[in-house]
Automatic annotation (TrEMBL):
Belongs to the cytidine and deoxycytidylate deaminase family. InterPro entries: APOBEC/CMP_deaminase_Zn-bd, CMP_dCMP_dom, Cyt/Deoxycyt_deaminase, Cyt_deam_tetra, Cytidine_deaminase-like. Its cofactor is Zn(2+). GO terms for cellular component: cytoplasm. This is cytidine deaminase. It comes from Halosegnis marinus. NCBIfam families: cyt_deam_tetra (TIGR01354), PRK05578.1 (NF004064). This enzyme scavenges exogenous and endogenous cytidine and 2'-deoxycytidine for UMP synthesis. Keywords: Hydrolase, Metal-binding, Zinc. Its EC number is 3.5.4.5. GO terms for molecular function: cytidine deaminase activity; identical protein binding; metal ion binding. Pfam families: dCMP_cyt_deam_1 (PF00383).
Amino acid sequence: MDTDDLVAAARDALTDAYVPYSEYRVGAALLTADGTLYTGCNIENANYSNSLHAEEVALAEAVKNGHTEFAALAVSSGARDGVTPCGMCRQSLAEFCDESLPVHCDDDDGVATYTLGELIPNTIDRGTLGK
């Protein structure tokens, strides 16, 4: 699956977002190492700390289905503003992905691509915890 297809899947996923408070839709598309695609959208809650982010919804679905190796992630918002995963989502991704994971961020001007390591250097990992 190429970057354009991955971004298109993230755009499709954001249409299902439940965002009555912020009205800021986000979709994510996570490609597993074997080519399986999982998508997620943000799901808000009146208690913002209980809201789910698109990336974590996609990651949870993939892990629930036995996938723990990933090839790429795309993220899109309804604003097409180049949104990147937040710090919490970056750390969650780092549990399963190495720093070279490409993260494609949808923007009106195209797609900005980062590596997970660029977005979150020096993550907390098993080594940090002495495991």
